[in-house]
Amino acid sequence: MGETAKAVGGMNLAKEIHGDRQLIVRRLQKAGKKVLGYMGPSIPLEILSAVDIIPFRILGDMEEPISRADKAFPVTMCPCVRSCFDLACKGRYDFLDGYIGSHYCDAQEKASHIWKSMESFRFFPYLDMPHTTHPWAEKYFKSMLVAFGKQLESYQGRSLSVENLRQSIEWHNQQRRLVKELYELRKNDPPLISGTETLKVLIALSSVPVAEGNVLLREVLDEIKARTVLPAPKPARILVWGDAVDNVCLTEAMEEYVDLVMDDTGLGAGNYFAEVEATPDPFDGLAHRYLVQTNFPRTFRENRAGETGKARMSQLEDRFSYLEGYVKEWKVDGIVLLLVRFCDPYGFEVPALRAFLNEIGIPNIYLESDYSNAALPALKTRIQAFAEMIAKPRP
Ligand code: SF4
Fold first, then answer.
1. Which residues make Cβ contacts (< 8 Å) with residue 158, sequence separation at least 6?
2. Is the CATH number 3.40.50.11890 carried by domain 9-165?
3. What is the chain's mean pLDDT, rounded?
4. Mean pLDDT of the 135-161 span
5. Which of 42, 104, 276, 324 would bridge with 289, disulfide CB 3.0–4.6 Å?
């Protein structure tokens, strides 16, 4: 892909892959590579890359009305997962060689089992994942990762050596560092790259092998750093928080009124900022990174023993002070908490997060969508009003 990226420009190629997500994997499958689908940020992609399997993230589509999935799921279930499953029923993901189910959240867990029962693929591994960060939970998760690695080894007919796993961890860590570099460019006022362009790059990365993604990212970075002509800054710089911010119609709608300069989402910073530490047994580093170091509401973090009432603020700081850091570094004027309806893990987090943001004086707004483009007009109105409330004079 290096030559291809140079020929068409990194950003153009990222947009092309975003528009046709199978562009690269189609060619690689013809050359004999296997591609496994997964949902959510909990699957340790390093293990797949180490045995030369291409991970491909399953995403929903807000433009496509959900129809077939309603035969299997109640409409009171996460519409993002229902959309992914709906697309699967309609054949969008038939090109995959298999699917990795997981217990990222209850909705994804249920979808994994129902999808498996449809017998769409011969290979359908399932990765269990605890919801606490206790040492015993980490130990259990490590054992799950080791078993998952063995499943991939026998499926691929290729041994998973420690050297290959270390090399793969380094590739993925490189990708994390490159994505962080991309996010650094959003600190500029106005940002050198918009939230929508960033999302297109991230979606392209989730559709290609890690090594090719790294080549693409380097090309994108060179191109964006060379930008000299930038659009005028919008009235407010915004951080968006939520899980299912994975369709550009959402970011485009918001960027009519604000600059999206930072995020804390399952496809963005939350998915990339934590690296895997080097440990004598690489599975220890992987288990720690995916269960403990990443900071998603799907994982329960126990309060320090004995703390009540007066200590509430210190508990909130433990959980959310990293967001305060993002606000300062990216010069954020306000935070949009953007959820899909019926998302329990993020929904339960909202009262505590808003209490923390209000306490430290960061303007914020809570918005909910049904993961369809019918939600966009109302979203735009609320964002426009929020931008007017928090607007600051720009130089
Ligand atoms: S939006 Fe919420 S319920 Fe849906 S997949 Fe993400 S975490 Fe799970």
1. 51, 52
2. yes
3. 94
4. 97
5. 276
